[in-house]
Amino acid sequence: MRAADTYGVSEGLPGYLDVTGAVLMGAEPRVTVGPGAAVSMPTGGVLPAGADAVVMIEYTQQAMTGTIEVVRPVAPGEGVVRADEDAAQGAELVPAGRPLRPQDLGMLSAAGITTLAVRARPTVTIFSTGDEVVPPATAELRPGQVRDATAVALAALVTDAGGEPADGGIVPDDAAALETALRAALPATDLIVISAGSSVGGRDETAGVVARLGPPGIWCHGLAIKPGKPTLLAECDGVPVVGLPGNPRSALVVFRLLGVPLVRLVGGCTTPPPEPVVRVTLARDLPSATGRLDVVQVRVSDGTAIPLFGLSALLSVLTAADGFLIIPEEATGLDAGTEVDVTLYR
Asked: Are 187 and 239 members of one domain?
């Protein structure tokens, strides 16, 4: 209808319009709306010529055959979606730099776009090091051996970040063997992750080997973070290299904070999806050393964050946690009752 024909109408003073035709779904209208007239149409139909508004059927009723009673006024454009309202000509439909979401695919389909260029998943090669490390499938451990608990968890984090994990295998504590393995992986990978071997010790060869792989070399060796202080970050001939601590919990905590964003960045994701965060109250005092970032695992219950403690080698602390909170570098701790943001594990 024409909006002007509804001005001033109300339930106490309805307006009357003649129904002069109908619009069929999926078809071009063959009727024109003149003064004092209305045309019936389904939701999603095309507005006929002469009409500038739509009134919902709930605000009308049939007064007599061919005449409707309108009890609510409408303004021009009401109930109408313009052809360019969802996306104007030349507008960006989906921004680059983020994973395609279901609604993004719907928007592209609505515009007739069924193929588009995307970034390939970055290949992340994961190496484990240590004479004591054996595959997880090892049925019986000899004294001094440990199953590789870190590589499979790192691979899952890589996959979650949009990367393609590649198993580099277990490399013994031998500088030549490690250098050979890393050099072989460099041409075919976008990011190298080395689990264990980054600590300062007699058998930790990672830093020396990485320094020889290619320029510019090591960015830093050691971070002011707990857990995860021995972390090594480098770039060798254009390939980022992350050396993680040997303790599984330290390795996974650091990789979630630094490695996951790096995987996304290498894959072209400059606008990553936000992490789920909940604001809760701290259940107990948390001490911390100033100048160091502390990452504390917590269990969330009834609006409170309950800190979980244990050695950095204990994976059970991570499996029991609902998420983690971060004590900033400038803080000397947090008092019980403090409101904190907890990043939840999905």
From this structure: yes
Q: Cα separation of 284 and 190, whole Å? A: 42
pLDDT at 346 over 90: no
**223 plus 283 within the same structural domain:** no
Q: Are residues 136 and 213 in the same domain?
A: yes
Q: What percentage of residues in the chain have a pLDDT greater than 90? A: 90
Q: Give 329's DSSP letter.
A: T
What is the phi-psi region of residue 118: left when phi exceeds 0, alpha when psi lies from -120 to 50, beta otherwise?
A: beta
- On whether both 258 and 281 belong to a single domain, the answer is no
Q: By three-state DSSP, how is residue 102 classified?
A: helix
Close Cβ partners of 4 (under 8 Å, ≥ 6 residues apart): none
Residue 257 lies in a domain: yes
120 DSSP assignment: P
Asked whether the predicted pLDDT for residue 30 surpasses 70, the reply is yes
Which pLDDT band, with edges at 50, 70 and 90, does 202 fall under?
A: very low
Separation between Cα atoms, residue 276 and residue 343, nearest integer Å:
6
**CA 3 to CA 52: how far, in whole Å?**
6
Q: What's the pLDDT score for residue 201?
A: 54
pTM attached to this predicted model? 0.83
Q: Residue 51 corresponds to which tokens in the numbers above?
A: 């009409």
Between the alpha carbon of residue 6 and those of residues 9, 75, 85, 86, 88, the distances in Å are 6, 8, 24, 27, 30
CA distance 166 to 143: 29
**Which is more confident, 197 or 274?**
274
**3-class DSSP state of 16:** strand
Q: What is the mean pLDDT of the chain?
A: 93
